[in-house]
Amino acid sequence: MKNAKEKENIYSDKRAFRREVRLARVQVEGLSREELAMVLAYEIEPYSSIPASEASVEWREIESQEEGMRVFDVALLRKREKKNGAFDVERLIKPLSFMAVVLLAAMAYDYFHIRKNIASIEKSLTRRMPLQADLMRLDNKISAINRQAQDIRIKRESAEKAQKECALLRSAYCDFLSSLSVIGARAIVRKIEKGKEDFSLSFVLAALDEKVGSEALSDLTDDMSKKGWEIQVADMVSTGGAIVEIKATARFIR
Prior knowledge:
Blueprint lengths: L3 H9 L4 E8 H4 L4 H16 L6 E8 L6 E10 L11 H90 L7 E8 L5 E8 L2 H17 L2 E12 L2 E10 L2
Antiparallel strand pairs: 1-3, 2-3, 4-5, 5-7, 6-7
Helix pairs in contact: 3-4
């Protein structure tokens, strides 16, 4: 057993490998000092490159923040070889056997906690499955309501568009008749009749001469174009004397 001076020598030796080791309490409870030294040496072996069987170990326990864990500040040096060049292997058989038992105990401890966590997760999933099913049903209802709302919105927009179109068509002929007022006394309307196409009219104007008739027709065309009507002149002829007769077609294009 090392005395205090030997322990301090390991910690002060610049060649010593230092590392903090955390072990579950279940792994180290009941271990003797030699057994704990072997466990710590095996824990550090992958980092120090010093085989546990060749390691001289010393440690100081550090306060742990976790109840189930113990923390050690470990210092490690390689042991000196015996004079005949061989290591005392027989002395290590018992610690190695005990180490195997400790590792098995640690594996059993981990397995127990893993199974406990799995059981907890399965229990949580069992509780959540009905809730998830309810959420899915609600999502489906919300989606159906959103689709219905979209259909209603589309139908309403279509109805509004149709109403505007009907109102526009209903007012078309009234707009045509109101536009005739722009010709004033320059010409008179001799005839109005249904055209060959839908929402079209044929009409005949009579004016005192070609110049006056053209001016009246030009003003009529400008005013009707603002209301969605298109005018095409079919013929302009003199009926005898100074009277000019203008034959035209008006078509509602908007």
